[in-house]
Amino acid sequence: MDELLDPGLGMPALYKPRLPLFTLSEAHELLDILQHFGRTDHDWGAQARHFAAELAARIPSRDA
């Protein structure tokens, strides 16, 4: 997981400007990722669970 924080890896080039907020689709994708990592017992898992709950409280459900 530490490799995700490695600044040497870089981010993919962006070909269009970023929106100031996530789209609903992006928010749900991020929620999926946070929930996945939240299943671990590592300290990162606790943080992922926290942010997954915060994000889920702020976005409409997929079923809505």
Please characterize this protein's 3D structure.
The chain has 64 residues and is mainly α. The protein contains two helices and no strands. Helix 1 runs antiparallel to helix 2. The longest helix is centred in the C-terminal third of the chain and has 16 residues. The N and C termini lie far apart (33 Å).
Q: Helices and strands in order, then pairings?
A:
Blueprint: H1 24-37, H2 43-58
Annotation keywords:
2 helices, 64 residues, mainly alpha, flat
Total of helices: 2
What level of helicity do the residues show?
Answer: 40-55%
Coarse morphology: flat
Using only CA atoms, what is the Rg? 14 Å
The unreliable regions are none
On the 0 to 100 scale, the average pLDDT is 84
The total count of strands amounts to 0
Strand content: under 5%
Major sheet summary line: none
Instruction: Decide which structural class fits the backbone.
Output: mainly alpha
Distance between the termini: 33 Å
Order of helices and strands: HH
Summarize the structure.
With 64 residues, the protein is mainly α.
